[in-house]
Amino acid sequence: MSKPSNLRKVLEAGHFAVTAEVGPPRFADFAPLRQKAELLRRYVDAVNITDNQSAVARLSSQACCGELARMGIDAVFQVTCRDRNRIAIQSDILGAVAQGVRNILCLSGDHQRFGSDPQAKSVFDLDSVQLVRLAADMTRGLFPGGRKMEVSLEAYVGAVVNPFADPVDLQVIKLKKKARAGARFVQTQCVFDLERFSRFMERVREAGLDREVGILAGVSLLRSAGAARFMQERVPGVTVPEEVVRRLELAPDPEEEGVKICVETIDRMRNVKGVAGVHIMAIALEERVPEIVRRAGLFPRPDPAGQALGPVSCREGNRVDQG
Amino acid sequence: MIIAQQKPIKDIAAMVSDCRKVALIGCAGCVTVCLSGGEKETEILASAMRMMRRLEGKPLETVTFTATRQCDPEYVDALEGLVKDVDAVISLACGVGVQYLAERFDKWVVPALNTNFIGGSRVHGVWEEKCGLCGDCILHKTGGICPIIRCSKSILNGPCGGSQYGKCEISKDVDCAWQLIYDRMKKLGRLDKLMEIQPAKDWSTSRDGGPRRAVREDVMIG
Fold this sequence. Notes:
With 323 residues, chain A is an alpha/beta fold. Chain A is built from twelve helices and eight strands. Chain B is built from eight helices and nine strands.
């Protein structure tokens, strides 16, 4: 239970990291989560659990991460500022880490206006920079305000950045603040506009931030042109260029085209200086992730999120998976 | 000033449906300026309610008065004679005025307005929220633009990932406060001021510290 963060190990060893995301169910059963995590365990370095993404109430991120830890899978616990004040956040971090979770990803959280409960009162006691600091302080044995913890906690603290949000100068400054506050890895918003992403990475390198944090480029799997349009119009902060939409529109098998776009994007990301890995967001299509990782040439993983059960090894050339 | 808007008349009428005589008390303060509870609005509401009740076959008697301020005991005291024989008092002040009336008179006191926010007027007929009443002003750090109330997530350290084309993720009609802060700081040549990490805010000076009270002993009498 007290294994260190696998993601940290992979990034610190200089390997190109691969993580993927799983959205928890809207009911009280770990079964779908377990099933998706099983599919992913040998193909990624860590599995991310979203925290009531899009402000839709779901099985709690903390509980799901605990379940992953019990399955022996390195989990990334997403924590937003929208639903909890600093007291609840400290408590949830303690809860997650006590269950064996070793990565904490700090976010603001989507506004509740478009979620399952638009009438809800939001919290935003802390912002994401302050949340990073709180989590990082806890790894140094400090509660907010400097009070000492009896036992410090072991966790790898991360944050997010959106290269496609405005104003770009402030997005870079905010990333710098997150690094200074103690973030050690950073996930980006889904990358579809590679030109704009490259320009953003130039700014990141100029600021030396790629040397301070492991930057995981967000890669998303789109199943259709409709899904692409939905993302462009309805998901805050996502930009899907028209040419991507057109490709999906014209493709005989749009989902396969989506996989292709995903694999191409990963290829491009591997050549962008300062990108330390990818974070694959295959919303409701998690079963396609093994194939994407394989086609991108990123399998086997140097250190999979969870060792496979049974006598399956992950040596080069191993073909026992069903991907 | 405090910005308030009138409730739908049927909601106000429902609060006093069992009354035969009511007093409608306007306020000459903020709600007069934002055109929701001044003398004019008080008279219009009274006459609309009388008409409504006449049509229902249950005539309503009204008395009206607009107090200098409902948030000050000396002006509330002056209403004593007026409210003496009414079944209910309808206050057209903000929530403060309603409570001052309710505290002073043993009467059924109801609100005619919804109190919305602290703000100002942009153009005639448009009011905007500007202050979050946090009790520890930080406007000197953000170029005179308040992120606590004007950013939908009250972020103190820069824009979230939902800021695009100068707008907030909640609506294309809402400016991103951090875009505004950025534009202004850039114009003033003070972008460097935004580099500093703003620590977690002490919300105890805000409503989170419990109901607040301000005391100035130097101006107290007796």
